[in-house]
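Marked as duplicate of an earlier ticket. Keeping the data here for the record.
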Amino acid sequence: MAEEFGSKQAGSKGGKARAKILSPAERTEIARKAVRARWDKVKEENGEETGDLAPETGEKSTGPFSMFRGPLQLGNLEIECHVLNDLRRVLTQREVVRVLSGGRESGNLGRYISRNPIVPDNFGQGKTISFKIPGSSNLAIGYEATLLIELCDAYLQARDQGMLKKSQLKLAMQAEIVMRSCAKIGIIALIDEATGFQRIRDKRALQMKLQAFVAEEMQEWALMFPDEFWIELARLEGIKYSPRNRPIRWGKYVMAFVYDAVDKDVGRELRKKNPNPHFMKNHHQWLKKHGREKVNNQLQRVIGMMSTCADMQEFRKKFDYVFKVDPWQLQWDDWLRPPDKL
């Protein structure tokens, strides 16, 4: 019996027949457009507010990515902020909502925009930024950090004009906390920059940190790296472990996975003090007690992570994500290559 025109069976056969005459590139493009169309529909239905993550289309991303990220303290909240490769300072939508709600929510920003009587409905439209966070397979959705200040200022204006409902006054209180925190941080930064103290402050902070980690003279040798660390490295690379014949590249692994991960400044200082490390003259012999404790803690974390991975590629991906390694911090492919290519 012939399938009825327009039925699911007929549509399925028609789709398969069409796919056979298309090139792989054409099929990929059609699939990409379908994904984007579905995503745009979701954004439209939700007022362009779809959380922090947008789906990847399978294409190599050439758009913005987080070059640096770190914690920012605003009142009693710590939020994650980003500097993109185009130098925009960005907060994800989730973090903006967390700040406005005092940490109680992390959902739809559109609701906070629509509740404010002096903020136009189209306030957030066209201001979203899709960007890549290293270690994440999805795109993040965010806004330039100045949008948070504009929203907070709007809530304060609405409160001063008596336009907020009683239930909204807590939002204005949170907005005031944010504005005060930013003002305090801003005036300190402006004075430090104007007087030149910023350079001295950074240098002094570095000196204090190195004094806590690094000794003036080399200490006596003591076992720091357990055999388990080296055995796991060999297993991940798929090679046989020999304690008397460790590959030279493992020295770079040690710097990347341990010392630089503990602190990049400490890693640089150890390279300077001990440019040619070898047996009985290792980097860890330059560490004070505080430094050795930090390195030992890092080793335990790394060994635990290694034990959950099947190969070096999987470990690198987990390491980058957990320790928030960005593309400018470590150029893995310059030296972390399979043993047969070294």
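See parent ticket for discussion. The chain is about 50% helix and 10% strand.
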